[in-house]
Design goal:
The protein is α/β, with parallel strands linked by helices and 365 residues long. It has helices at 29-59, 69-72, 78-89, 101-111, 128-133, 179-184, 198-211, 215-222, 233-241, 254-261, 292-302, 305-308, 345-363; strands spanning 7-12, 15-20, 62-67, 92-97, 119-124, 137-138, 157-170, 189-192, 226-230, 247-251, 267-269, 276-286, 318-319, 340-341. The relative contact order is 0.16.
């Protein structure tokens, strides 16, 4: 038998590998074994590094916060809040944009207890009763000295900012002083859909709170003034800035952005003598959160100076707690409504469906 055709069995790292005897001029079996061993050592090193990296990642807790799109935009509060909180929490804060404010609750209802969210930030008092009815939110304990125009007592939600809805227009143009005058004018307006947008829903509550049973007639008269209805605030404000409308549903604080960020004093908020509806934006913790203590830490951080000082010049709203340095220069120029309107959350919940039906009926004619 030719020995060159024999196979040898050589042990290698607890396994048996079969090598054919080398032909003249080919690597020896020992060289092949050495190469194989080096490959195994290298593979083990790479696997170990990956395992260590994975373990390090697993040790860093992640907090997922659902919010509205403008909050997480590069010009919104999200990036600065993320940096500030991560500096204190030893965690990874992940913001997830979920459309506009009213769309947040719809998404949470759809996902239910399977949601990846730990915290929902961006609901308001028109939606809190409906949110509580889902049974998906857990009680919280947040302490703060709030600077809200209303007393705050809620075991499920904590406020982080507030403001008044208003129609913003070019300052050099005459503006109506109430809804009836607006309907009688030739002004073209852009508003948001109340089914997806908290400003849109706030407008429904505003008209209902101001006019009660007259609300359907107000909407019928306003229908000719409405250029379009957008899904969210950003789209509507963009159309106004592009000259597609004379006025846009926004906030009394919106002109502060133009004044402070752009050195532009050409925008103003129209003051309505019926009063202005107030919005208080809130955040809450989901009962299904797998990071309940971290969620509590974030909610308490939310009312701290580190968070609240970011709000005025990124979300362009009044902070729920006055920052230690006060409000930015320019906020003193904003209009202050003489009359505030705000339906209690229980009333808002019961009125919402009726107001929406009135709005849909008027705009479909």
């Amino acid at each position: 038998m030719n020995p060159l055709n024999l196979n040898r069995i050589i042990p290698a790292e607890g396994r048996f590998r079969i090598f054919r005897h080398a032909m003249p001029g080919s690597p020896s079996p020992h060289a092949a074994l050495e190469t194989d061993m080096k490959t195994l050592v290298l593979a083990s090193s790479v696997a170990g590094a990956i395992a260590l990296s994975t373990a390090a990642t697993a040790e860093t807790p992640e907090l997922v916060v659902y919010t509205y799109d403008s909050f997480v935009s590069e010009w919104g509060p999200g990036p600065a809040v993320e940096t500030a909180f991560e500096a204190t929490c030893g965690c990874d804060l992940k913001f997830v944009g979920a459309g506009d404010g009213a769309a947040l609750l719809a998404r949470i209802k759809l996902e239910g207890a399977r949601s990846d969210a730990d915290v929902v930030l961006g609901l308001d008092t028109n939606l809190t009763a409906a949110a509580k009815d889902t049974g998906l939110f857990a009680p919280i304990s947040v302490t703060a000295e709030y600077a809200l125009p209303v007393e705050w007592q809620d075991e499920m939600f904590a406020p982080y900012d507030w403001g008044y809805f208003a129609f913003v227009h070019n300052a050099d143009a005459d503006a109506p002083t109430n809804f009836k005058a607006l309907a009688e004018s030739d002004a073209k307006i852009v508003i948001q859909d109340p089914r997806s947008s908290t400003p849109g829903l706030g407008l429904l509550m505003w008209v209902k709170a101001a006019y009660g049973d007259e609300a359907p007639a107000i909407w019928e008269d306003l229908s000719d003034n409405i250029v379009t209805v957008t899904k969210g605030w950003s789209e509507a404000y963009g159309l106004f800035l592009e000259g597609e409308a004379d006025m846009v549903l926004s906030y009394t604080t919106s002109p502060a952005y133009h004044l402070i960020a752009e050195k532009d004093d050409t925008k103003a908020a129209a003051v309505f003598d019926e009063g202005h509806y107030m919005q208080v934006e809130v955040a809450g913790k989901l009962a299904s959160s797998d990071q309940p203590e971290l969620a509590d830490q974030f909610l308490q951080f939310m009312v701290s100076d580190a968070f609240q000082s970011i709000i005025p010049t990124t979300n362009w709203m009044y902070p729920a707690v006055i920052p230690s340095d006060g409000l930015p220069q320019g906020f003193e120029t904003l209009v202050s409504p003489e009359k505030s309107l705000l339906l209690p959350e229980e009333d808002a919940a019961s009125v919402r469906d009726e107001a929406l039906a009135e709005w849909l009926s008027a705009l479909s004619q």
